[in-house]
Write a structure and sequence with these properties.
alpha+beta, four-stranded mixed β-sheet, Integral membrane protein, transmembrane helix, membrane
Length: 215
């Protein structure tokens, strides 16, 4: 089993890179991913934009410096230049992925899709949301049963679930989570929309807090 997982890693990495490059294309043509079914999108990338572009700028400066240092070794210079350009593309692609893959609330389907770039995509049935609230957090400790999707080192919305959902990590590890924290550019709007969608689910009882809320 472990050998098969090791063999699967290159495929996962390639798929990840292709998704980032695909996100650059979607960003360029001003389209979003997973929002065509009538759901409402809620962005979360605004808080990291300056940081990501600052990082990309540092990478560009580093590329220029390496070009100067390696000007007498053309073969090495060309190889390093390709790697540097690719690094800049990946950095910008990470931000693009966050822009084009927003959270999506689909009241008709009864789901809230919580995402972070191409790394996390969790679909939460509305009937499992025991409570949703604005809660700004700048520090997060890894805890069993909790999923923190920080953007710019902060989360602004906390979802407590009456039943856990399954989160699949990058390398395929599965774990159940009963508390999900995420960030939204307009957390108040997301909380209001989720509350309205929950109330609109006719005949569905919603407890104030779930058994996972004490975690």
């Amino acid at each position: 089993m472990r050998a098969s997982r090791v063999l699967a890693v290159p495929g996962l990495v390639v798929r990840h890179e292709l998704r980032l490059l695909g996100s650059l294309w979607l960003w360029a043509v001003r389209r979003t991913h997973g929002t065509g079914g009538g759901g409402t999108a809620f962005g979360y990338a605004r808080g990291q934009g300056a940081m990501m572009f600052g990082f990309a700028f540092v990478c560009v400066i580093e590329s220029v410096m390496m070009s100067v240092l390696l000007r007498d070794w053309p073969a090495v210079h060309h190889a390093v230049l390709v790697l540097d350009v690719y690094t800049v593309l990946i950095v910008i692609g990470l931000h693009a992925a966050s822009v084009v893959r927003p959270h999506v609330l689909d009241a008709a389907a009864g789901t809230l899709r919580v995402r972070r770039a191409v790394h996390v995509d969790v679909s939460i049935p509305l009937e499992r949301i025991a409570s949703v609230r604005r809660e700004l957090r700048a520090t997060h400790e890894r805890t069993d049963g909790e999923l923190d999707l920080a953007v710019g080192s902060q989360t602004s919305v906390t979802l407590e679930l009456s039943e856990p959902v399954v989160h699949v990590a990058f390398f395929g590890r599965r774990r159940e989570v009963g508390v999900v924290r995420c960030h939204a550019d307009d957390p108040a709007a997301l909380v209001r929309a989720v509350d309205r969608a929950r109330e609109g689910r006719a005949g569905t009882p919603y407890p104030d807090r779930g058994p996972w809320s004490s975690m």
